[in-house]
């Protein structure tokens, strides 16, 4: 049976494929139809957005949304801004950017870490040293969120401190945050940041061991270690995929670990919750970036981590 004025989600993707994860989540959240667009360029967004909003009447436009995917965090946010400027109220729809799930994953990571730092009696993330090993979209987004919480953030690249600093400088310029760069090619490079680290986030490629147990045993100030890698060998030795606040053996301050599947559980709830917010014809259109996702993640983490 044909649905009158269905809830439609238009997916603008700068890569050749749309993520099946995002498609599945959209249908789980009760969108009636999901329409994929691939190889979309930044200059395409204005026209696609206006075709989207002007093709439906006053009722239909309230049941229309846009999702922006891909793999590039910065490009996705640029596309979101371009879509927002193309709106002509009252022809305006919600837009959600989440390239490779990086925004919802990073929001889940930082919100979970924030809760465990508090539970450990260490206050907030403000003035904590947060070191992020891995400079893909998840690592960069997590760094921006942590920096916005007042943390001292270091982006750590396996390609060396010069590359880490270059990426940190780009984030500082574009997002107005303070970050530093470091390398992780040698034990000496790792020790240079890990000895002072309060929080470490493993966001490198799957299947790569980035921190060993003996290195963690020298992390005198470590409070929380979070690892997004669920593929053996795990990224941070001693942090299992289902851990949510389990003490990491041998760490001087009894640091706790947050594993990939535990992070994924909160990420899923954040992703689903944001889609559900878009399937609400009575609500005003919303523009969901890393900051909006983090607000939802904080609420979910507070419910999950008592």
Write the layout of secondary structure elements.
Layout: E1 8-12, H1 20-28, E2 33-37, H2 45-54, H3 58-61, E3 64-68, H4 73-85, E4 94-97, H5 102-119, E5 129-133, H6 137-148, E6 152-157, H7 161-175, E7 179-183, H8 187-194, E8 199-202, H9 213-216, E9 224-227, E10 244-247, E11 256-258, H10 260-278, E12 287-288, H11 290-304
Parallel strand pairs: 1-2, 1-3, 3-4, 4-12, 5-6, 5-8, 6-7, 8-9, 9-11
Antiparallel strand pairs: 10-11
Helix pairs in contact: 2-4, 5-6, 5-10, 5-11, 10-11
Beta-strand percentage range:
15-25%
Low-confidence segments: none
CATH superfamily of the largest domain: NAD(P)-binding Rossmann-like Domain
User: Using DSSP, what is the number of strands?
Assistant: 12
- The share of residues in helices is 40-55%
Rounded to the nearest angstrom, the radius of gyration is: 20 Å
Termini separation:
45 Å
CATH architecture of the largest domain: 3-Layer(aba) Sandwich
Count of separate DSSP helical elements: 11
| H/E element order | EHEHHEHEHEHEHEHEHEEEHEH
Structural class, by secondary structure, is alpha/beta
How many structural domains in the coordinates?
A: 2
Largest pleated sheet? 7 strands, mixed
Strand order of the largest sheet: 7-6-5-8-9-11-10
Summarize model confidence as the mean pLDDT: 95
């Amino acid at each position: 049976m044909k649905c009158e004025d269905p809830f439609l989600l238009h997916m603008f993707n700068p890569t050749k494929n749309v993520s099946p994860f995002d498609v599945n989540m959209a249908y789980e959240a009760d969108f009636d139809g999901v329409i994929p667009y691939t190889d979309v360029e930044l200059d395409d967004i204005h026209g696609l957005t206006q075709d989207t909003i002007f093709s439906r009447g006053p009722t239909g436009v309230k049941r229309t949304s846009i999702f922006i995917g891909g793999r590039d965090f910065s490009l996705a946010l640029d596309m979101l801004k371009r879509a927002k400027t193309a709106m002509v109220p009252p022809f305006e729809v919600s837009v959600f950017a989440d390239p490779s799930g990086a925004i919802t994953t990073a929001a889940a990571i930082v919100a979970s870490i924030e809760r465990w730092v508090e539970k450990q009696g260490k206050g907030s993330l403000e003035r904590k040293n947060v070191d992020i090993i891995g400079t893909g979209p998840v690592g960069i987004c997590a760094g921006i969120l942590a920096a916005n919480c007042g943390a001292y953030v270091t982006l750590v690249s396996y390609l060396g401190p010069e590359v880490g600093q270059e990426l940190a400088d780009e984030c500082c310029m574009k997002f107005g945050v303070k970050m530093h760069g470091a390398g992780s090619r040698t034990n000496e490079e790792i020790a240079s940041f890990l000895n002072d680290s309060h929080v470490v986030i493993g966001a490198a490629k799957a299947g790569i061991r980035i921190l060993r147990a003996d290195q963690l045993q020298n992390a005198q100030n470590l409070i929380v270690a979070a690892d997004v890698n669920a593929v053996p060998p795990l990224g941070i030795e001693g942090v299992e995929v289902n851990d949510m606040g389990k003490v990491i053996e041998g760490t001087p301050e009894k640091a706790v670990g947050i594993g990939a599947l535990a992070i994924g559980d909160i990420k899923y709830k954040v992703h689903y919750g944001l889609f559900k917010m878009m399937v609400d014809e009575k609500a005003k259109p919303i523009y969901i970036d890393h900051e909006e996702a983090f607000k939802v993640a904080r609420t979910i983490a507070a419910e999950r981590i008592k």
